[in-house]
Design goal:
heterotetramer, A mainly alpha, B mainly alpha, C mainly alpha, D mainly alpha, C: mainly alpha, transmembrane (chain C), transmembrane helix (chain C), NADH_UbQ_OxRdtase_su1/FPO (chain C)
Amino acid sequence: MSETTYVQLLYLACGGLLLTSVLMLWRRELAVLIRVFAVQGFALAVIAGLAALHHGGIELGAVAVGILVLRVGILPWLLRRAVAAVGPASRETRPLVNVAASLLVAAVLTLLAYAVSRPLVELAPAAATSAIPIGVAVVLIGFFVLITRRRAPSQLVGFLLMDNGITAVGLLTTAGVALTVELGVALDVLLAVLVLQILTGRMRETFGDTDVAELRELHD
Amino acid sequence: MITLLMLAPVGLPVLGALAYLLFGWRPATAWIAAGAAAGELAAAIGLAAVVDLSGPQIAVGGLARVDALSVFMLLVIGTVGLLATAASPSYLAAEIRAGRASMRTAARHSLLVQAFLAAMASAVLAADLGGLWIAIEATTIVTAFLVGQRRTRAAVEAAWKYVVICSTGIALALLGALLLNYAAQHTPVRPGLNLVGLIAAAHTLDPAVTKIAVAMLVIGFGTKAGLAPLHAWLPDAHSQAPAPVSALMSGVLLSVAFYAILRVKLVADAVLGAGFARALLLVMALASLALAASLLIAQRDYKRMLAYSSIEHLALIATGAAVGGPLAMAAVLLHMLGHGLAKGVLFLGAGQLSQTDGTSRIAQIRAVAARQPVLAGCLGFGVLALIGLPPFSIFASELGIARAGFAAGLGWFTAIALSLTAVAGAVLVIHVSRMLLGTPAEGPGAATASPRLPAAAGAVLLAGLTLSAALGVTAGPLTGLLHSAAVIAVGTP
Amino acid sequence: MSALGIVGGVVQPLAVVAGSPVLVGMMRQVRARLEGRAGPGIAQPWRDLRKLFGKEPIAPRGTGVVFRAAPYALVATTLVVSFVAPLATVDSPLDPVADLFAVVALLTAGTVALALAGLDTGTAFGGMGASREMTIVALVEPTLLVAVFALSVPVGSTNLAAIVSSTLRDPARAISPASLLAAVALVIVIVAETGRLPVDNPSTHLELTMVHEAMVLEYAGPDLALVELASAMRLGVFLALLANLFVPWGIATTAGPFAVLGGVLALAVKVVVLGLALAVGEVFLAKLRLFRVPELLAGSFLLALLAVAASFFLA
Amino acid sequence: MNPTGLALGVALVLGVFAAVLGAATRKHLRARAVGAVTALCGAAGTIAGISAMCGTRYYAAFPALLPLSGVTITVDSTSGLFLAVTGAVAFVSAVYGVGYARADANGRLPQAVFPLFVITMMLVVSAGNVGALLVCWELMALCSLVLVLTEHHRRPEVARAGRWYAVMTHLGFVAILAGLLVFTAAADDDTFPALRVAAHHLSPTTASVVFVATLLGFGSKAGVVPLHVWLPRAHPEAPSHVSALMSAAMVNLGVYGIVRVGFDLLGGGQRWWWLLTLALGGISAVYGILHAAMSTDLKRLLGYSTTENMGLVLIGLGAAGLVADDPVVAGLALAAALLHMVNHAAFKTVLFLAAGSVQRGAGSRDLDALGGLSGPMPFTTAAFGLGALAASALPPGTAFVSEWLLLQALIHARPSAGAAAVVMMPIAVAAVALTAGLAVATFVKAFGVGFLGRPRSAGAAAARESPASMTAALGIAVAVCAVLAVLPTILLSQLGSLASGLLRTGSPAAMDGIVVRLVGVSGALSPLMLAVVSVGAALGLVAVVRLVLTRQARRAARLWDCGAGPLSARMEYTATSFAEPLQRVFDDVVQPETDVDVTHARESAYLVEAIEFRNRVLDRIERWLYTPLLRAVSVWAAAARRLATGSVHRYLGYGFYTLCGLLILLAVTR
């Protein structure tokens, strides 16, 4: 693979990452969100795969496969189960901030990510590192989704969006986070999602509907 | 031998967890948990001796490392863990009697508590930041089910908030760790995330990147340590968890998370000088203190009250860490231990109280002293220990933090922190005195005698208080360890 | 302890004990004449005392030691003051006792004894008198102390003999602003302390107004005689002190018989003049409402305070 | 180990032993065992104190105690004075406790904590470094708090008083802590010698911060207005032997702190500090005695009187600091303040213990329900009477001598001491004088209404005298009072040299023989002669009257009472009515709350069936200062609760906004 192809593909994947993030802000249907999330996972796997090809590491290849399995396969599946259990009321009802404002905020957050990431890019200017701001932007957008979405599954999506961003930053910044660490991280994310999914179930048992904004029994 | 000693603090609880998985919870197995915690404590003491004799040790292929600081944290985990697990059998038995739990729940509880202990031990034994991160994230996952154990609406709500907020925070820490790793990649030595290596390579780390990384790491681990801005899970989770778990979470988990901040601060100080981490920690600490003190004033629930007091104490610890220097660091470490003991005693006592009185509302509990003198005594003196009255050790550590703060030229910040602590202390005393003192209500309901405090639980509470008082009188054999741990925590300027 | 002091220590108490009832008699006589009555003559108080001393002592039921001891305490404190203060001679037999603060406190102690006696009777009148008397004392004592302070600051001593000698040496001091202010304040509080109009009317037994008389209602016979004697003596001592603090001339400065005789005569003249002035004043004054009295006393306290301020600022 | 150290060590060992006895012995032995051993502990403390005052200093260091600080013990002559006073009060209170505590405070906890309270007070004054001082101070506060709460299950006011006390003492402690730590930060370590060295190069601002913070902290313990609010609540609610310890010994430690920090460690300092001290003292003295004069609760009255007397002590301290250029007068003022403190300890012990006996014997401490105790409780009545005399600054009373000295010091303050002094001295004199006058009225009320006359309640009518241990303790305390009253010279020379040592002047305001003759300024007083002459005159008079004038025996007769019918207790003046005229006079200051409810008869509005009159004198400062403060705090707390609404989005939002803000900051400042 020539250097230019690598860069082109890399940028394409990163663009996909950002685009899917914005889409997640845009769309309200949980089912659509999950599909978009799977696409994003695929883009992430592409970034990992490209890194593996470019640096020629077997470990990275394994990581790419792992990401593909986890983020395109397992996590969307778990999410779908969570949403399916919710029942017909699966459409996201009015987020705390309306869509137009959300998109505007996403733009601002992306700019902020660019501004903040300058030192990161400057440390080792390269094709991969210059895409770091996108990863950071995805993290911030994910955080924003987390604080503006009412339903438990969509909060879950926000959390995973953040996590995708972090993984992207990890893949872009480095070729060699120790495999054990990477594995541990993946496992932890998986477990966190599992926990949240179980809790979603329990919330449904105890509260009936899973509007997180209604969880306000514990307060001062 | 050393490897064995270093594996024991993780391995023994894992074995305990396996035991509960295989045999379930019953009177015969009830004390396995305490046994494992005692073993963990013993291993910590052994390690302390080893570290004292021959310095830091590395084992398990470089994944685990132990120095005076981690040994001290192990001691904290072991001590408070022993207190909490020793109080568990009677607590679980009472829960089962009251129909709030089954044998299965008890077994799962014990299993998870063991896993919790193992995760905390591995956090302090981890040789690199990645391992530390994984272990701390693992504590979230394990305790999520413990918080939600009761499956009431409130418990599930608390668990949800706990997991969402903590996972978010810890995700930020992960981002920080990755960025730090990125910075480390571009140094000649490439230390990765190894805690010692990072400090050794500090002068070659890129300061701008490190700054962003440290900010993320401190906010992220600060979430688990109960520091503002992502502190809000704490009162919910600590008030809903079963008493022994609250004791462990408040008494140890927060300190373990703060241990991570201490490690990050070492790197930050080496790269950026003391100013950056200090400013960050001070702002977070003062915000947390102000918040805890304000919310304590009108508090209506005594478990939440204790939880806010934990925020306050961690903020105080953060103030101490921000001050830096051997005295402040020794005080911070002593404070962790003292707070663990006091808060452990208080949460266990509060659990006892909510079992007998059936409510956690301050306004609904009166005249405990007249009904259950021993429990009231433990709670009363526990609160006095918590607000830093001698002879309890928090007095000594608060004094140390304050003294170091004034000496470091942070007089105003220290004075504000002290005033807020004083307000919080005064409010705690007022709330608790309303519950403990007074004349028991006369009437038909008053005739039913309150159940007595189970002997084991009483012994645990008294032991915790006694230990705290003894530590306040003299650190005794801990003195050396405390000082070498403080030296490590200060780092080499 | 000088010869002059010893002479004074003997002469002064005698003069006070013998002269005070006469002073009271003279004041009553002057009032009677001014009011168009014949009057009983100036020796009438002595005649009363003789009659009372001849009666049987009474111990009212329900009263205790305090009630019985109070008249003695009252007379004794006044006697001590007349013993140590420079009334007729400038020296005192017990110089370390002749301190202005001590004298003021001693006189107050006598009042306190009487108030306690009033309370000890357990009657409504006793309590009422004691309450009113203590209200007045609570305001009079500070005024006295502050006035004394004002007089002491320029001299640098609270010793009575020292103040008197200092005024003798430096007559201008008597008309200094501090001195004048203090004099006015002292006059007011002495009127209050000795139970004269307009603060208290010694010749009435109306429960709405009486102060001193209410406390002593239960006394009879020799006890009453002592109380009456004591109040006469207190009047005499206060007037003598007032006179000598501001107009000390004539006081004996040597132990010679003529000097001492002159001192006693000068004392008698000064006290009589003051007493007559008081009596004449009383004719034209009505008694103040009880709750107006504090205003008067507060005024005198303020004057005394001003005197102190003046003595500091103008020193 | 020298005699001072030995005696102190013995005292500590005995104290701990007594605590163990209190926790371990059986109920019927407990009071006796604890009382006896604590009394010995107090005696040993007194000996240690006297030995230290005579010049035997003691020093010891225990670096292993109190982690991160270490403990140093230094007993010098200043400590000695306070040690001796504390020990003596402890001795008397412990003896009294044998009889008193058996009935009222015989629980394991109070009995075990009582001796600990004694030794912690001794340790406070023996501390030789900041860490030790602070730890002992807090231990003392803790012990006293536990003791105050002894009867919490009987009366709800006890818990309320305990809360006030706990909060105020905690806040006060933080002030002390901050002040001393600012000081320590400038020194090499936290021992007193190091601080003395550091004081020389302390910046004026820092020194002022240190002084003001410690003044507030120590002042709150001494019950200085406006930080006094806990005192008239907590002192009365404690068991009486504890009240005595608190009011006679513990408040002194506030004075100790001010003396130690202000004079000894900071070495005098700026004039306005002492002006502030003097002003606080003056306000405390007048305010305290005014409220004492209005109180009807005997122990509350005594509590306010403590505030008054500490105010007088502070006036002395302030005057000493203000005229520090004039060593003679400054020494005189300081010696007067210290003497007054000792005197106050003596008579307040008597008064609180007697009040305890009254509470025990007559079942009430409400003056309006007492009276007529001189018959059934002669010893207690006599003791209280003498104590009241001692407290009211009348000769031959105890306080008279010290107030006389104080006034002498104020008189001899030269105008050269500065304009501030010239303005303040007359005001100080007025405050002292007003205090003296009101104190007379107050104690006449307390003694006259509480003990004389007829009983006003069934409890008072059935009063019984206390057991021997209590009357013995009272007797000892009265004897000490009497000795201090007539022979202050035995103490004054010591106090004079102590004062000159503290002021580093080297010219002691010494006193000689039986006459207090001031050195360097004109002034002399002999309390002994005064007492002898007065008593002699009275006895002579009795002899003359009984032997010469009337030789008949006294005849018992009915009270005349203007010929009214048989007396009933309801016709008597009560404490409330006694104080009513004074209350009117100071209406604007105390602002009493009165309300009158008139119930009219059903038949006609002109006929009155019942009139209910209520009159309460509330603490004005409490209402002005603390009520708005508490209200502000609760408003704040209510507002703060909006931070924790339970919304997880909001909680995460805190993090999100902080993160964004921080990132922007990092991006901008890079």
